[in-house]
Design goal:
Pfam families: MFS_1 (PF07690). Belongs to the major facilitator superfamily. This is Siderochrome-iron transporter. Keywords: Ion transport, Membrane, Transmembrane, Transmembrane helix, Transport. The chain is mostly helical. It has one domain: MFS general substrate transporter like domains (Growth Hormone, Chain: A, Up-down Bundle), CATH 1.20.1250.20. Helices cover 70% and strands 1% of the residues. It is built from 26 helices and two strands. It has a two-stranded antiparallel ribbon with strand order 1-2. A hairpin with a 4-residue loop joins strand 1 and strand 2. Helix 17 packs antiparallel against helix 18. The radius of gyration is 24 Å and the shape is globular. The N terminus and C terminus are likely disordered.
Length: 613
């Protein structure tokens, strides 16, 4: 990878400004966070600390920081790829395999709700504090998962683990956005994704070895040691920078709150983080989506009081959430003013639709490979990782091209079209009876190639539509929509699975042994050990899986149509060497977007920058 041009400048050996590292305000100094004055000040303590640290960083610090980003991304990336496999075995061991989508919904909801407040935590308390906080929750959640003896405890561990993972990933996004220009951003955004190129091929060997020689609990638990160890370079570089700034006297003006102001501080934190809005968002998503994944199954629960009550309360909370964000929240997690921009709205829909469509065909793909295609654990793990591998390889290559090709909208549009076509291939090659393993692998490769064409370019276009001080806010919202798409995708796939597969299994197993339907549904990985390929029982189960997967794939194709339409609605600005376009948000009018201090910003460059649609 070509590294940026970095030189030492002056006695403090700070980084050259040509790389846009410190020639503008830090990414944390954006949006409502700065204007909060976090705790009644002009700038939050976290922002001041970041600025002080930034002024002391050396070339070696930057190398360590980027190396640390790659290292921790390698660890949590391999953990994600293997943990998704262990999750299948965990639910199978609890005879709750159908709850896979429910667990994924819970993780996605937590990730969606945690994004906005965590972006503010990074600004109020600092980068070092956020990464420490996140690693702690990552480890705590992983310990609970590994020690769980039922699906409820496992789900509780996943909640804490997801909070930690979300914080780590968000910190990495913020750091990268802070040091790159628009034309370089797509390329450098792939640094935390580069480990997928390696992990795709070794994750299968790891899971296969763990399942063969140990238990899924050990496969999960070992990350309580690995992830903290790989976080040391980032923690060390931020800590040493902070210590260097303190010795230079650059932190002396950042004073802690006095005891008399602590209550006021807590109240301001409540409003700054919009904790009520965050809780309302998590509640309404959980209460609406989770019942849809559990109401079906071998015995329908749609008429049960608990399902009805959760759905009713969830939908009732929607107007309360909107009203609070519009009228009650001082610093809302949803920046409604920015949503008047066509490119931002279109980009957010792309973010939501990407995971929505992918999880429709991918939520139960690993199980499908083992049951219908009779693949090994290693092969199944590699096939389910092909999307990540191909998207990173293609994305990195395109990121290099985008440094010279300044208009990227139509590349993103082409990617969404290819994505829809690849989902169409999954309708055709959904089981071994319809073209075999090669067709499914080809479909997954096509999905991955498409995934390299549009997610990060669209993120860059969304960031380009906002002023520099709002990039952190809109990036957090983009990632939130990405996670909400995961939640919706898992919800729909879980609803289709739980309301279709049990009846199919009962129908096709009835002439053979109808009592096997429940076992085949609740613990399919155990079932296939007793009924190998070629037995009447396995053939009946494969047929049921085939027809259920068909519904899932067709739903994905249908929902990919508005994804393509949204990509066509994006603007097509020329991406230059700035962190944000000078004319961003100009067409939004004089109304305040997030904070009143933006009204004073009259330094708008009048350059004619192309924004053709």
């Amino acid at each position: 990878m070509a590294s940026p041009s970095i030189t030492k400048n002056g006695s403090n050996h700070s980084l050259d400004r040509s790389f846009h590292l410190y020639d503008a305000e830090p990414v944390s100094q954006r949006g409502d966070i700065v204007a909060d004055a976090a705790l009644g000040e002009e700038k939050s303590p976290g922002v001041k600390r970041v600025e002080a640290i930034a002024s002391t960083l050396t070339k070696l610090d930057l190398v360590v920081l980027f190396g640390g980003i790659f290292l921790i991304a390698y660890a949590y990336g391999l953990d994600q790829q293997t943990r998704s496999v262990y999750q299948t075995y965990a639910t199978n061991s609890y005879s709750s395999h159908s709850l896979l989508s429910t667990l994924n919904v819970v993780k996605a909801v937590i990730a969606a709700a945690a994004q906005p407040p965590m972006s503010k935590v990074a600004d109020i308390f600092g980068r070092l504090e956020l990464i420490s906080f996140s690693v702690f929750f990552y480890v705590l959640g992983t310990i609970i998962e590994a020690a769980s003896h039922n699906v409820q405890t496992y789900a509780g561990g996943q909640v804490l683990y997801q909070i930690g993972l979300t914080g780590i990933q968000l910190l990495i996004e913020v750091l990268i956005a802070d040091i790159t220009s628009l034309r370089n951003r797509v390329f450098f955004s792939y640094i935390p994704s580069l480990p997928f190129i390696i992990n795709t091929w070794i994750s299968g060997n790891v899971t296969s070895a763990v399942i063969a020689h140990s238990t899924w609990q050990w496969g999960v638990g070992m990350w309580t040691i690995i992830v903290p160890a790989t976080s040391i370079p980032i923690l060390l570089s931020l800590y040493l920078g902070q210590r260097r700034a303190k010795k230079a006297g650059k932190l002396s003006h950042i004073l802690p709150s006095t005891p008399s102001s602590r209550l006021r501080t807590l109240v301001q934190l409540f409003h700054t983080l919009d904790l009520l809005g965050t809780v309302l968002l998590a509640l309404l998503l959980s209460l609406i989506l989770i019942p849809l994944t559990i109401a079906g199954g071998t015995s329908s629960r749609w008429a049960h009081a608990d399902v009805i009550v959760m759905l009713v309360i969830g939908f009732v909370l929607i107007p309360f959430f909107v009203l609070w964000e519009l009228k009650g929240a001082r610093h809302p997690i949803v920046p409604f003013g920015l949503l008047r921009d066509r490119s931002i709205l279109a980009g957010l829909w792309v973010a939501l639709s990407l995971n929505l469509c992918w999880y429709l065909q991918g939520a139960y793909l690993y199980t499908l490979l083992l049951v219908s295609f009779n693949t090994s654990v290693t092969t199944a793990t590699r096939i389910t990782s092909l999307y990540s591998f191909c998207s990173v390889v293609v994305g990195v290559a395109l990121g290099g091209v985008f440094r010279y090709v300044r208009y990227i909208k139509w590349v993103a549009v082409a990617g969404t079209l290819l994505f829809a076509m690849a989902l169409g291939l999954m309708v055709r090659y959904r089981s071994g009876a319809h073209g075999g393993r090669a067709g499914l692998i080809g479909a997954q490769v096509a999905l991955g190639v498409a995934g390299g064409f549009f997610p990060y370019p669209v993120q860059a276009l969304v960031q380009a539509a906002t002023k520099h001080e709002h990039v952190a806010v809109i990036t957090a919202l983009y990632l939130t929509m990405y996670q909400i798409g995961s939640a919706f995708g898992n919800t729909i796939s879980g609803a289709i699975w739980s309301n279709t597969l049990p009846s199919k299994l009962a129908t096709y197993l009835a002439p053979i042994n109808g009592t096997l339907a429940a076992a085949a549904y609740d613990a399919p990985l155990t079932f296939i050990l007793s009924y190998p390929v070629g037995t009447p029982e396995r053939t009946a189960v494969v047929r049921a899986y085939d027809e259920t997967q068909r519904y899932l794939a067709i739903a994905g194709v249908c929902l990919a149509v508005p994804l393509f339409a949204a990509a066509c609605c994006l603007k097509n600005p020329r991406l230059g060497d700035l962190q944000a376009l000078p004319e961003a948000e100009r067409k939004l009018g004089a109304a305040p977007v997030v904070e009143a201090d933006e009204k004073a910003d009259g330094n708008i460059d009048e350059k004619n920058v192309d924004e053709t649609a």
